[in-house]
Design goal:
3 helices; about 0% strand; about 150 residues; mainly alpha; rod-shaped
Length: about 150
């Protein structure tokens, strides 16, 4: 009879380590799942930040292209001797004068020419300014973009 009583006790002791082991396995699984969720969350944040940086880089490049375009169109309008009284021509020339930052001015820019050669001055100085905007814009685009 002692053997019959010992058998259930033996089974109970065998079952206890199994439930403890499975409890430890469940804890490890939960811990691994939490770590995976944290890693996935971090990846989502990085993906979101990369998307924002990409948009900002695209906007910077677009702004540089628009500035270069305004300078180029302004130089073209000066070369074609467009009517300064026209509102659109006046707007483009005023915008180009603002965007030249004084460095690429047609009056006192990088290259100065003798009086009466304002067409040459506008084409050269605003042309260099347009190229400078494109170069700086592309460099900033590459620095900002992930």
């Amino acid at each position: 009879m002692t053997d019959a009583n010992d058998a259930p006790k033996q089974e109970a002791t065998d079952a206890a380590p199994t439930s403890t082991a499975s409890r430890a396995d469940r804890r490890a699984d939960k811990k691994a799942a939490r770590a995976e969720r944290r890693r996935a969350g971090g990846e989502k944040v990085k993906a979101g930040a990369d998307a924002v940086r990409s948009r900002i880089a695209s906007l910077v490049w677009l702004l540089a292209v628009i500035c270069a375009l305004v300078l180029a169109v302004g130089a073209l309008l000066v070369a074609l001797k467009a009517n300064d009284g026209n509102a659109i021509v006046k707007f483009v020339l005023d915008a180009a004068d603002t965007l030249d930052l004084g460095v690429f001015s047609r009056d006192n820019g990088i290259f100065t020419f003798s009086a009466g050669q304002e067409v040459k001055s506008a084409l050269v100085n605003w042309g260099i300014g347009a190229v400078a905007y494109l170069v700086v814009g592309k460099i900033l685009d590459r620095v900002i973009r992930p």
